[in-house]
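Need tokens for this chain, all 143 residues.
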Amino acid sequence: MDDLYRDYILEHYRRPHNFGVLEHANASHEGANPLCGDRITLQLRLADGKIAGVGFTGRGCAISQASASLLTDEIKGKPVMDAAAMTSQDILDLLGIEISPARLKCALLSLDTLQQALAEAAQPAQSAATAAGPLSGVKSQTA
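Here are the structure tokens for all 143 residues:
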């Protein structure tokens, strides 16, 4: 159990990086782990295909909060596609400690929340393209 709370995990818990409401966010999602009460809201500012800004708020156990802090450090400035491709193993590698099955949902809450925020941000762009129709931008040939 001592390994679970290594100093850097506790440091990220006590002084999380990127904690707070992000001004001018254009993507956001609130994630929760109902089994233990962990909750985070992740806000993103997406620009030119990159994550130009990131912030999070919430509360929960040391693992969930440290995971969110580490994840936000990792994705800041990255291309959206790279952030969207992150896996559970990437988060576990960032944490650098053995996570028990009971704590896995805590550790992965930030990743799930990120994936949901990115999916929701992509939907309006997809909806606009679909609403325009497959022939939008094609000039009529009839005169």
